[in-house]
Amino acid sequence: MKIFYAVQATGNGHISRAIELLPHLQRYGTVDIFLSGNNAHLPVNAPVRYRSKGLSLYYNPTGGLDYWRILRGFHPLHLRREINDLPVENYDLIINDFEFITAAACARKKIASIQLGHQASFQSDLTPRPAKRNIPGEWILKNYARATHYVGLHFKTYDDFILPPVIKQDILDAEPVDKGHITVYLPSCSGDYQERIFQSFRHLSFHIFLKEIKQTTVKENLTLLPVDRKLFNKSLIECHGIITGGGFETPAEALCLGKKIIAIPTRGQYEQQCNAAALKQMGVRSIRQIDSSFAVTLEQWLETGDTPRLNYSNSIPQLIDRLLTIHESSKMQTRITKGRIRCTNEPVLSV
User: Fold this and answer.
1) How far apart are CA 51 and CA 36, in angstroms?
2) What is the pTM of this model?
3) How would you classify the pairing of strands 162-163 and 182-185?
4) pLDDT in tens, 299-309
5) Topology at the third CATH level for domain 2-167+313-337
6) CATH topology for 169-303?
7) Would you state the pLDDT for residue 343?
């Protein structure tokens, strides 16, 4: 079987998930990866056959979206050419982790595909949202990477097509300990901004992961570390708690380890606001921003009890089984129609 796996490279979570799933998918055929976007910071040791700058998100130093830089990276004619040229018709199984070019190519060529990932869970109205829904944000989550099938991932199985998170094996195998430090992973905030914030809490030790540094540096109560898979896993496994954005993968790993969390969703990121709403339902602390009340919030958080440890150990077998079941169903439909698959909920996309 020939498998096409499209990975959104805006942020590190999609890449981290692909690295975990790749060896399991390779048991069933050859896997070609399409990496789209240029705002991730993890190395990709995988069979990347196709690359594109795609559509990437960028942030200003304090964590808000940098809309001007995002618009500067948008080239409609180039995207149209990539959509036409992407050979999705040459593959038996197409897995799309929230990638626009693949979704548009499959729509144009009437090829079935599976949208896999956290964003797919928002096809269900049962997935948590903030009290005030954002209409453009809802539209993007549901239409940016439309597919013929959906396999969502979330903290809980809110609907029948939603499965538990994919967790790195290093995290699943770990026995968490508490060595007292607080891990900080706020990729949308600049290093200088984070240093100014956390240096003021001199009685606490912080491990801060920054995309702009290449080697570990100690500054008083701060240990500044590069974004590195092994370093981050070790820090998370041994931390007292973690301060992170409103993404999905890092909070999921912290929940799997039973670590306390402060989630700070990026301003203008509706998906992260939805994640914060889900985490709040689970008793996790979430704040809008680091402001004058942050010191009180931090002290109160440190005094709270431990977070329950969630069991996500069977997520990958469940996921692979679901993907193969959908693939077999699509093959059966192809034999019945004796022709190309008809996409009953074909996405309508234009560039």
Assistant:
1) 6
2) 0.86
3) unpaired
4) 999 998 778 89
5) Rossmann fold (3.40.50)
6) Rossmann fold (3.40.50)
7) 43
